[in-house]
């Protein structure tokens, strides 16, 4: 099979990029041909598809002239459409699989793909298909104020970055897309990594036959499980408000007998460090950004991994990484996390943002080395069996095969007319 994979970034930014890169690697390993379409960036991996990549643009630049350029790019990129067309001409893919395309690539590429009648699949890694707000989280709480297509409410509520400007742009983008129906109408199938996300999209009105659930995968062979019990609690991931780190630090005030290590960077880093200094917390250490073997060693040295998210997580790769090293996970019961963490078997779930509940679970686990080991082994088994690359490959081939066999799924949405 010949597949064209599309994502705005071609370097590791978060879970979306990780899946984009690993899926491409898996498919090539299995003997399939793949090609890649993305935006230019100094951190990009080297690739023979570089000549088709679109020029770099940053949406953090506040300059007014650049803002006009940004807006044009966000709504419809002529460059992206023409370059993906040239790439399709060269590679003639059987199927096009999109990941995140918002802003940097724009939905113009969807029109290029559909003009050639190619099957089009999209993986969703956030809620932006149905909301101006990507993570349905705002001002310290879950925010679904624009549900029911009322995107203007996101503007008045400043749901995006607490800014009227960004909220206006994102809301306008959603109205335009709803009007044209490109994404919802022209994408043949949306793949989501959890049942939680599937149900959320159904709640927002997407038809069931347009959504399928396929969790991400992990190669446990790359993480050498030693069975050694570690000595500290660990959080690793982005340091942003919705990840619940501030809440976790409040919890650590009550647990002077145990250490917490925090690996990662993000917009909340300085605030969190100030909090630790201000409250004289001696049991919290910041490790900065870790990856590869350094991250693996840090997870391996932990007693358990904590995932205190406040937002409705769409998946939880950190849970699978912890499992691959035989570590139990104590996670909030938000979003997809209850699908990954088996309460009392591979760790514990606590009521999201409930300090008493998480304290009870941590204290209970601390004094039970045998239970920690047992849960870790069960976690490792689940990662290896339910989230293996082999199983993922079989499932995705089934999805691709349905299209290749001409059994295209019919959606209820009608595509925007006259835009070819
Ligand atoms: Zn809001």
Automatic annotation (TrEMBL):
SUPFAM superfamilies documented for this protein: UDP-Glycosyltransferase/glycogen phosphorylase
Domain annotation Glycosyltransferase subfamily 4-like N-terminal: ranges: 13-220
InterPro entries, A to Z: Glyco_trans_1, Glyco_trans_4-like_N, Glycosyltransferase_grp1
Superkingdom to which the source organism belongs: Bacteria
Glycosyl transferase family domain location: 232-380
GO MF term (any one): glycosyltransferase activity
Protein name: Glycosyl transferase family 1 domain-containing protein
Highest classification ranks of the organism: Bacteria, Candidatus Gottesmaniibacteriota
